[in-house]
Amino acid sequence: MNKKAWIQDMKAIPFLLPFLLAYLIFTIFPIFKGLEMSLYDWNLVRKMEFVGLENYVEMVQDPNFWQTLWNTTLFVMLTTPTMVLLALGLSLLANLNTKLKTFFRGSFFIPSILSVAVISFLAIFMLQPYTGLVNTVLQSIGINAEPFWMADKGLAWVSIVVVTLWWSVGFNMILFLTSLQDIPDALYEASEIDGASRWKQFRYITLPQLIPIGRVVILLQILASYKVFAQILLITGGGPGGATRPLIQYIYEIGFTQNNLGYAATMSYALFFILLILSVIQLKNQRMEEK
Questions:
Q1: Most confident stretch, 8-22, 36-50, 191-205, 251-265
Q2: What pTM was estimated for this model as a whole?
Q3: In whole angstroms, how far apart are CA 74 and each of 162, 214, 217, 273, 279?
Q4: Which domains does the chain have, with CATH numbers?
Q5: For residue 49, which of 40, 39, 58, 57 has the smallest C-alpha distance?
Q6: Is residue 134 pLDDT above 80, yes or no?
Q7: How far are the Cα atoms of 50, 133, 134, 164 from residue 138, in angstroms, in the given order?
Q8: Who's near 96: CB < 8 A, 6+ residues apart?
């Protein structure tokens, strides 16, 4: 690189510096500060005390940590494949050349712009026993049972999964829809000339073209699902009996209810490394398939 080009590149530094400083202060610094906190008996009352790896030993021996990690993993297993298939199906419906395509796109996407508080309030309103909308509809069609959606372990998971899918499927639908619209029409026209059916067009043209964005959707959904917190806290509170309590809720309770910030930071780093490993595996698989 010659001197003139180097000087030209340096002119961009004043414009990049504010973002770089904000990134260092609010992203990089908290990462290393959290790692430091995990090595201390740290709270907001007394002076911190260095404990080394004791927090990590306690985490491995903590049954609540493993239970909440399993609850979170169960949520990931329930929502990720369902979300991908549902988003794909809705994107195909929204991509149809009909008069209702604008309605489909809007109705599928609008829930994703609502806040988690609004979504949770609607869920509680619809799922509450006796007066809830869901139970009222069930009784109107002849089902006299009165399900307690948030008091039964299985029904609580069903409620959380359905609410999460309805709330967040719109974003993933848009990702698939964007990729669908990038598929050249010439591919479909050539297949029609060759006599290909709609199913064969979907199987041999649409699906292969959607594989790259599908990998992205899967990775984003796994990461988002492992970070689930707010809707479960607001809808079930982690109940019944801690059956739906995710790891981040447990971290929140340890850090801000029990005031044990060091141990909370330790579990946060455990979750961070889990997500990092999953991301690396996904990216490596993607590169191997591309080769």
A1: 251-265
A2: 0.88
A3: 14, 21, 18, 18, 18
A4: 50-290 (1.10.3720.10)
A5: 40
A6: yes
A7: 57, 9, 6, 21
A8: 104
